[in-house]
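Its record is quoted verbatim for completeness.
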Amino acid sequence: MPLAEPITPGVVDWSGENPGILLKDAAGDFSAMALFFRIAWSPAGQGHVLLLYGTPAAVSGTAEAPNVLLTDNASLAAFLKDNFIGRLKIFRAPPAFEGMSVKLAQAVRSSGDPMGHRYCETISGDGLTVELVWEELEPPRALELTPDQVGTGAHTMFSLLVPARTARIIVNGYSLPGQIGTRIQAGIETTTAFLYFSETWVIPPEDA
């Protein structure tokens, strides 16, 4: 049966992939945070962006746990920081948001199987190699979320979610400390380690 409204109204903000890993310490505070973007379409073009808070509670981070935007498209990184990441309270609130440096990514590759046990994104450049590893992958869920159900509060979002039960953020061979936790999204309990595929963010007509 065809959809009642085959075209979603509004302006497409960006489309691509957006997996992430949020690690917590024993006190329940974020000890490391990573959000990766593989963008197929945006007003700033295509490309890859890794947001890494190796030390979320500090402005500058450390050599082992830096706070950085690693990207092969600086204009895309600036667009996402100002128009998307900055709208997500969980990423805007830490001191790392204001202090992270921008570095050039020279190589980006994915490995593993999102339909299997393990999936990995590896981003390298400017003396950094960051590996994001998701393991114990759960079955996928198709999401269609309204603005009141997403972190920006300003988009309709469509995506395929694959949660992971374990995950690691590895910087130059060093695993950042922390464990994943649970979170609630649109009334569904999931984890703080997630693969988002086929993700599209649309600004509804009243906000476009």
About this structure: The mean pLDDT is 94. DSSP finds three helices and 16 strands in the chain. The two ends are 30 Å apart (CA to CA).
